[in-house]
Amino acid sequence: MPSFSDFDTRGYRTVDVATGYGRWVSTYEDTVEDVMDLALLAELTVPTWSGARRTADLGCGTGRTGAWLRQRGVTGTLDGVDLTPQMLERARARGAHDRLQEGDVRATGLESGAYDLVISSLIDEHLPDLRPYYREARRLAAPGAHCVVVAFHPHFIMASGMPTHFTDASGEDIAIETHVHLLSDHVAAGLGAGWRLVEMREGIVDERWLARKPKWATFRNHPVSAALVWAREDG
Question: Which residues contact 59 (CB under 8 A, 6 or more apart)?
């Protein structure tokens, strides 16, 4: 697996995930663009969102994904897990989830075989190894379940040399520990955990992006995010 240090062009001071998101929380939703993940989710043809009776939102953050799921017709139980207490406070105030708990997406403590949708958005680059995540998602999955993962595209991380980062109150740019996972790493980890890949889409730096980030013109048409949809192999 390539190391992010091989591509880093920023040289920002780096902090761990819990520290970084705990400090980023106040400006997170002003920074993360919906076109990065939510717009990509909207393009998927599976799963049928409104059909989800129990959903596990792993790495739920401030509740952005949970709120989007509710808007797409998810009326069933929605449980969220996140490593960062400050993010969970925002999600709790948002009110999209039925239950929120602090925990690791690789060992959530949620009920086995209980969820017909497991979803995660923009967390994969913080995991040193994808396999424990996919195994945990498979443990949670009920027969016929889907797992949806939106990833920070490895091509963009490598081409831009840009880690996940934020600007703190003092104006310092701070990186959050970032790992590079090729799409083939996702495929190998998902297949190895007993998932079957049923759909994949990639989001590019298009006019929507450039309207928000004109300085990214040099990355026009480069892939910046990816969505993978998995089905439980024996479902």
Answer: 81, 82, 83, 105, 120, 121, 122, 123
Distances (CA, A) of 191 to 104, 112, 144, 230: 22, 19, 16, 9
pLDDT of amino acid 121: 98
Write the CA distances from 202 to 140, 154, 205, integer angstroms. 26, 11, 10
Can you tell me the distance from the alpha carbon of 66 to that of 52, in angstroms, rounded to the nearest whole number? 12
Whether residue 30 is predicted with pLDDT greater than 80 in this model: the reply is: yes
Using pLDDT thresholds of 50, 70 and 90, give the confidence band for residue 97: very high
Strand order in the sheet with 99-102: 99-102, 77-82, 54-58, 115-121, 141-152, 223-232, 195-204
Contacts of 177 (CB under 8 A, 6+ apart): 14, 15, 16, 17, 20, 126
- The per-residue pLDDT for range 103-118, each reduced to its tens digit, is 999 999 999 999 999 9
Please state, in angstroms and rounded to a whole number, the distance separating the CA atoms of residues 193 and 230: 11
pLDDT of residue 1: 77
- Would you tell me the crossing angle of helices 34-43 and 64-71 to the nearest 10 degrees? 30
